[in-house]
Structures are given as structure tokens and as C-alpha cells.
Hints:
Glucose Oxidase, domain 1; endosome; PA_dom_sf; 14 helices; seven-stranded mixed barrel; signal; alpha/beta
Amino acid sequence: MVTFIYFFGLSFVVSQVAGDYGVVSARRKLDGSPWTNFYCISFNKRFRDLPSTTADHVVPRPLLDLSNVTGCHEQDFAHVNATGTVVAVNRGQCNFTDKARLAQKSGAVGILICSQDSLFTPAAVNQTTDFAEINITVAIIMWSSFTQIQKLGSLIEVILFVPVLETRFDPNMIIIFLIAVSCVVFGGYWSGITQLDKRKRRVRAGHRGKGGDRGSKTDTDSEEGEEEDDEDSVEISLPAIAIFFVLVCTFIVLLYFFYDYLVYVVIGLFVIAGSSGLYYCLKPIFNRMIPVTCRVPPNKVPCFRSRPDAKNLLLFGVCLAVGIFWAVQRKAEYAWILQNILGYTFCINMLRTVHLPSLKICTILLILLFVYDVFFVFITPLFTSSGDSVMVDVATGDKSHTGEKLPMVFQVPRLTKDAVNACPQQYSLLGFGDIVVPGLLAGYSHAFDLTVKSSRVYFIGVCIDPISS
Length: 469
């Protein structure tokens, strides 16, 4: 199970991309005041795209406030003049396509659907015909935002657009860069040391086997400790690559069709993997700070028969509590910090645990990941009814009705103050696979350097090459 989590994390070798978000701004009609307050909306550009520009270059439209009805019946528009307006209706009773079709029939140029839950991309019922028949803007706005617009009065005009980034470079990219590089360096360094120690233990075990039963008790205790250290180590073989490659591809396809259900499975796996990574990263520091060993008394409990160290159990409980706390608070504004910590330790623990035995295995793995990327990003749009790639739909969660996102990414919020920041939690994202793939090669290179007793020239070269490129 843990190995599958590792390979699933490795499968996201492309960064997630942002969904279709725009902004709406409102003012009193004919007021002529500048557009100052911006509110986030999510829209489906396949109905009608919004212009990507600045507020001064968008044509204002009158707002028709029908938020007291759902817009699912013709009588909702029977006694109003909706021609040329943006209609605001309540969410519920019918699907987005029915609301948009009735609004378009009444002459509206756009529809704002007020939601109390979350922002997500409004989907079509029949993706073959609905996108061709409906040619108005279909967007979702939060109720809290729309109530602020209502405070302006009855005669209101609005603009809807996608704000251009006033600053192309955001300082958060420096943070993303430091996260990626440090994870590759630290994880690769630890991986090389772990692989060398594993080889030395195998050699010592071979010598003991040839030496018979001499020093049996001491040697047996030592071997048990070494086996305990090695039990979480995974050495990738060709059959393992083939099996897990098929499993990952299958799971991606299942996510595409059952995203709203399987996303919670992924969140649960991330809690387990992230908590385990945090535990194994803190364990050496914790044991150095508290060198006393206090093992669990002899018992018949299956999980505790090996009599683990009590202080390590305490540490694992704390790490698991951190993972569970993130899962509960994953939509909070500060949740990205915990997600990055769990993701960082997950990647380092993966590099420590998963080893490439040869350069041939590394080459085959990279080739398969390349084929995986090309197929699920560029080939699958030829087979899907919507024309979207399976990877993009899964990575962004655009088709989700729950608003949940896959947590297998590092994310840092934008630090610049642009109009696009009207949408909360605007992140720069980087998939775990973008770090783990070069990290595996760095770990193999460091292990090779230690084996041939070089001055770590290959490890340094592998670490410098991604930085310079």
C-alpha cells in the first residue's frame, strides 16, 4: 500500500493548472466611478469565454437581480426585461444548462448563479449540444460576494472579465524553487547514504552466515535491528515498474470518471503518507534528542509484538495528529502550510525509501513517465467527449461538484497584489513528481559516488543541472 502511494505521487509529474476564474465588479449605473471592488467568479469558457483584459476595457452591462428565484422556470423571466443584462439567480432546483438556456431565451448576455457552498466550474448536461446552443456567460458567484453588490442599490451595472496579471513574476516562485531544489538535494543525499548502509549490512550479514553460529545472541539482536531498519525500503525492479505503472494508469482513469468519490481516497492516502514521511524525517532528530530507549512490554497485540520504542510511538501519534488536523482544516487559509510540510517530508521519505538499483531501471522509469505524460495530456483529448485531457481534468478537479482538489502538490499563494487576487487562495503549484523524478536520479548518483568513493561529483552534477536549466 505504501509503495502504491509512492508511485501515485510520482504519477503527478506535471503541475496542476488553475481553473477558469474571473472577477466581477459593480457600481451604480451611470455613476462613472472607478471599478474598485472585485469579486471572484468561476465560469465555463466553453459556454462563452470572458475577455482577458483590464477593467477599463470591458463594456458594462446592467445587472438584473433575480436572486430570489432559481431561474428554472419561464415565469421567473416573464415580467422583467432581461435584454442585454447579466441576470443573477439563486442556485438549485435545476441544472446550470437549464438556467442558462432560459436566461439566453429572455435576451440576457450572462447569468450569475449565487452559491452558498463553493466556487466550481458550471458544467453542461450534454457536452455535445449544450455548448453549441448556449452562447452567454455562465458563472458562479458566492452569496457573500453578491450581497456586497446588492448593497449598492437597485440600478447597478457590472463588468465580468479575466484580469491580466499586472506582474508576470511573483516572489512565490522563489519559494517554490527553494522547496524543489532543497527537497532534491536533501532527499538525494539521504537516499545515497541509506543505500550505502544497506549494502554494508548485506555484506556483514553474508560474513556472519559464513562464520556459523558464533556470537549468536549479539548477532541475532543486531540482525533484527538491521531488518527493522530495512523493512520499509523499496528497491524498484522491472516487474514492480510494470505492475504499478498499470495500477497508476488505471487509477487515473477511475479518478476521471469517479472523481467526487475517489478524491477522498486520495486525501486519506495523503494523510497516511504525509504523516509517515513526517515521522521518518523527525525520528533521527527525536532519537538524538532523547537517546533513552523504553520499549513496550511483552504483549500479544499484533501491532506491538516487535516491542517498538515508546517514544517513537509518541512521535508517530503526534505526526498522525498533524496529518488528521490538515485533513479537517484543508480548506482553511493556512492549510497550504501544513500541506507543504507533509508533502515535503513525504517526498524526502520517498527518496529515502525508494531506490533505483541501476541506471537501466532509471532510464526505463523516465521513459514510461514520459509516455504517461504525453498520453494523458495530449492524446486523451482525442477520446474524451469534452475534448479535455484526462490529466488536466483530474489535476484541476474542474468536473468536481465537491470543490475538492487533489493534495499531491506544493502550493504557495501569490504574493503580488493584482485584481486576480479577488479570488481567494490563488496559488502557484508544483506537482510532487516534478521533484521526486530528479530526486531519484540524485539518490542513485549519490549512492554511486559513495560506492566508488568519489568526491560526490555525480551527485553534485545531477543537483546543479536542474538548477541551471
